[in-house]
Amino acid sequence: MRGETGAIFSYCTDPSVLEGWRWFACYLTNGKHMLAYTSFGTVMLLLAITAPVSLAFGFAGATAARSRIAPLRWVGQGYTAIVRGVPDIAFFLFFVIALDQAFEWLRHQVKCPGWDDPIRQGSDFVVCDAAKLPLSSSPQWVHEVYGFSLAVLTFAIVFGAFAANVLFGAMRAVPRAQMETAEAYGMTPRQSFWRVLVPQMWIFALPGLSNLWMILVKATPLLFLLGVEDIVYWARELGGMKGAVFDYPHPDWRLWYFLALLVFYLGLTRVSEIVLERLTRRLSHGQATSGGEAMRRAAA
Amino acid sequence: MKTILGTAAMALTLAGGMAMAESHSTTVRMGTEGAYPPWNFINDSGEVDGFERELGDELCARAELTCEWVTNEWDSIIPNLTSGNYDTIIAGMSITDERDEVIDFTQPYTPPDPSFYAALSEDVDLTGGVIAAQTGTIQAGYVAESGATLVEFATPDETVAAVMNGEADAVLADASFIQGQVDANSDLMVVGDPVALGGGVGMGIRESDGELRETFDAAIQSMKDDGTLNELIEKWEVSTTW
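^ inputs. structure came back:
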């Protein structure tokens, strides 16, 4: 068995003689726990990237859905209707493999034009070595970054569809009189969209978007379906009963690990609530909504 | 929708650029589960460890291949092999006709070995009770046909936990895995008669990858011939020897 490497405390060299708090200190700082701690970073990074990307997808979808050009409108409406209608888990299991194969197929067409063998051989999907994504000779981190990017893209497409629907509704909720006034001032449709509609729609979108954010926070365990080792994977892996082949044997401790996850997720949602509350107050300022009206009266 | 295409194109060029920078040697990606001690597990340093890690490294050294270890959920371990995410499955997978229709196997590196039942008491009903097994294993298939009620779990750990918390009466798994669990857990005991299942454990390889299969076949044969395979089997206590 490979010995303990990279121990933080000097007394961790032989785990079998440790007792009490020293055992725990070494146990909680072993290589496996370190990987688990970094997976918290993975989840936060996923949220930090996915949220703005989903919002961008949603904005593009909503804009397309209310476009005056029919084909663009169909694309926007089709996107929200199809993606919202497919169960997340089916989407995550099917879509990632399909997306990966689509990328490899495209690269195969470009890089290996002289290839004669069929790409589908029975259940095998075979592209030339140069078309593999990432190349099988790439180091593991490249594979992990690629998997993570696929995860972000999939999350963004799914949550973008929901965001598109929220933003579409928010755009329609902006009082019609505002747009008429903009037109009366001689603004072009593009100007009135960007200067009047977009700045005012956020307060109407916020309740829907904040719901989406909360759901996104709780959906991060789906990462594991995409092959990314997230905090739920590590809680299960670390908490499971460990026999004598391990340096730190212990009984089934999954309850404690999942309890830690519970605290983490509750903390995250609490912080989100506080931030969203502030954002609501800020966006209500000067708006023709009951919230904005209440602020105006309080100030007067 | 421009954004989707744009992002896709960006991901493509980005990943392509990264991949291009890497060298072009023969790297074989070894897919395992990492949750089935002593066959394969993630050790306390966070690396893949166990009988199959040591065996795989030795096979790769003999075949002069560079090998990279990857872990994957048991549930999707075959689809991810066929779609090319890794090149071999080395995860205590028994050779069965059903699996052989989808993928190819090397010759077995451990002989067919019995499976054990483990339970909390001697007097459980193995043919009419509730038996836990891991999804998609030969044991799950056997329990389903034995007349007992089968409850399936995604990981080996959960099958044992189900017995410990009373959800299932007994668990059926490979003898070596059960033995390890029984040794670590004084409440658990081996019950009933051993069941002979499967045709030995081999490496799973894509059907279109005949050359790689022959390479590993030869390497396994050479380890059988000089006795090093038996030494490894004894060291990790995974099965009987050849």
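Residues 1-5 of chain A have pLDDT under 50 and may be disordered. Residues 161 and 258 of chain A are 31 Å apart (CA to CA).
thumbs up if we can close this ticket
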